[in-house]
Amino acid sequence: MNTDKIRRQITKQNLRLDSTLIRDLRYGMRKVNLTAEVLEIEKPHLIRTWCGNSVMLTGVWIGDETGKAKLCLWGEQAHLPVVGDIVQINHGSVGTFKGEKLLSLGNP
Questions:
Q1: What region does 77 belong to: left with phi over 0, alpha with psi -120 to 50, or beta?
Q2: SS3 for 93?
Q3: Which of 69, 86, 87, 95 is most buried, by the most CB atoms less than 10 A from its CB?
C-alpha cells in the first residue's frame, strides 16, 4: 500500500479521536475541536460590544449525530457558512448567554 495513503488515513482517524461530540459540550470548556453540519443560520445583526465597538454577530445552529448547538460567528466570519456545509472547529470555547449554551471561536 502507498505510504502517503496510509498517512492520510491515520491523520483522518486521529482527527476523529480528538474531536468532541456536541452532547459532551460543557460550560467553560476550552480548546474544543469538533466537526458538525450547518443546520440553520440566523439573520446577522449588528451589536455593540462592551468596549463600545460595533460588530456583526451571526448565530449558526450546527449539529452532529448526538445533538445540536449554537455557534456564534463574529465580524468577517459572520457571512461564511452556508446551510449544509460541514464545518470543523478547532480551539473553540463553550460559554452561555441568557441560559443558552454557545460555542464560540473567539471574541470580537
A1: alpha
A2: strand
A3: 69
Can you point out the beta strands (E) in the chain?
32-41, 45-48, 54-64, 67-74, 86-97, 100-104
Helix/strand/coil for 82: coil
Q: Measured between alpha carbons, how far is 73 from 39 in angstroms, rounded to an integer?
A: 14
pLDDT tens per residue across span 7-37:
666 555 554 446 889 999 999 999 899 999 9
List b or e across 36-75, with b for residues whose CB sees 16 or more CB atoms inside 10 angstroms.
bebeebeeeeeeeeeeeeeebbbbbbbebeeeebbbbbbe
Kindly report whether the global pTM for this prediction surpasses the value 0.85.
no
